[in-house]
Design goal:
By secondary structure, this protein is of the alpha+beta class. The protein is built from four helices and 14 strands. The protein has a four-stranded antiparallel beta sheet, with helices on one face. A hairpin with a 7-residue loop joins strand 1 and strand 2.
Length: 203
């Protein structure tokens, strides 16, 4: 993951990541991101959110793709999401089913809500890490599932390959200084926007 030229690099000790700038740290995910595990027990929050690889985190009723699981009637079992949370589908992490919520709402119990453990962590940087195909492939041995396949573009598509939060929490990730996390995320934001604009023009 060489975003720009640095004076010195070192081995990250992580196969999918390779070398990293010498001043970067590496830590387990559970020491970078917390899991939010608040249930909607009092049923005060009614706004059900949905997550997909293509639409991100959106209100359930606004989904363009109407397939998938139906919302449950008992919303007390749903988990609460806050704006800025990284929302991850435990059944489809390796396929890139992850998004950042703009809303406060509730989601299915199969989702993990992750948020920075400290002010030295920038959520969007780690959102992009979850979207990386190299990172997704590195999780393969952690999952219990039924079927997966790789498309011609190298993208992984899966049908139910669940990764537990315990296993995910022990995954080792790079931890650059906060300023560099933000710079890399901003660069990727602009690159993604450019690609999206090109796609829209083609369509």
């Amino acid at each position: 993951m060489k975003y720009k030229k640095y004076p010195k690099y070192k081995s990250s000790g992580i196969e999918w990541l390779g070398e990293i700038p010498e001043h970067w740290e590496v830590r387990r995910l559970k020491f970078i991101l917390n899991e939010r595990k608040i249930l909607n027990k009092n049923k005060k929050i009614k706004k059900i959110l949905s997550l997909s690889m293509y639409e991100g985190v959106i209100p359930y009723d606004e989904r363009e793709l109407k397939g998938g699981n139906k919302a449950k009637e008992d919303i007390s079992l749903y988990k609460i999401v806050y704006p800025g949370d990284i929302v991850v589908n435990s059944m489809n992490i390796v396929a890139g089913s992850v998004g950042i919520s703009k809303y406060q709402g509730i989601v299915s119990p199969v989702y993990y809500m992750l948020y920075p453990i400290s002010n030295n962590v920038f959520n969007i940087f780690y959102y992009y890490m979850f979207r990386s195909s190299s990172f997704q492939k590195s999780l393969f041995g952690l999952g219990n599932g039924i079927l997966f396949k790789e498309s011609s573009s190298g993208k992984l598509n899966t049908i139910r390959l669940r990764i537990s939060m315990e296993s995910l929490g022990n995954v080792i990730l790079p931890l650059p200084p906060l300023s560099e996390q933000k710079a890399i995320a901003l660069f990727l934001d602009k690159a993604t926007e450019k690609i999206d604009n090109l796609i829209q023009k083609e369509e």
